[in-house]
Design brief:
This protein has about 270 residues and is mostly helical. The protein contains eleven helices and no strands.
Amino acid sequence: MLEAVTSVAAPRPARSSAARYRSALWLLTKRDLRVRYSTSALGYLWSIIDPLIMAGIYWFVFTQVFDRGAGKIGEQPYIVFLLAGLLPWMWFNGAVSDSTRAFLREAKLVRSTSIPRTIWVNRLVLSKGIEFIAAIPVLALFAIVYHAPVNGYALLFPVGILLQAVLTTAVGLIVAPAVVFFRDLERATKLLLRFLFYASPIVYGITNLPDSIRTIASFNPLAGVMSLYRAAFFPAQLDWFAVGASALVSLVLLGIGIALFQRSERSVLKEL
């Protein structure tokens, strides 16, 4: 694998650096997906089993145990509402969690290849993003079974994917080099992700929040992302203020991530 990546990264007059970067990124992404599922009998199904189980648990708790129907939390059909939040969360959570080991797990490759080191974060975002896109048919199937009508806001779904990709990359670029210097940040990141899950409109909608905190909650960049996804089935969930705030925060975080990454790159290589 080292030879394969190095050969892609080696200078080739006929190809631009951007083309070589894309080629190496795709090579590493395919490797991640192949390694993840090559020894698994269920393969791709594992990428949707986790969110399906989580959706089943929350559906049971909020619709059967507490008998919370429409108007209380989320919208009906609640299982579709849940999946529209849980599937993108699995992308964000998985990519950020893996980013804490992005350099440490691949230390030899990181040191020995000349490709820009951002690729070790971007390949995680891309591989988890592919898993998310592969799970969209499952969401569509539940929408059909439970008669959740699709509306014109479904055209905003790709916007949600783009915004989430920017946000996830930004957080990954901040976390990956930081963990190299402060190893305790790996566990701290997992705790923060657990907190962020409940602080984000995943099992509930942004419209369920009291007006007194809704504006502040809109600056959680995941709020606008979830709003864009859910609007395809639940138009009332579209909150343009949250979308705008999410875009602003995501771009600011991306700028911070790129700046911190560039300033710490040499120190990271020395530490590895």
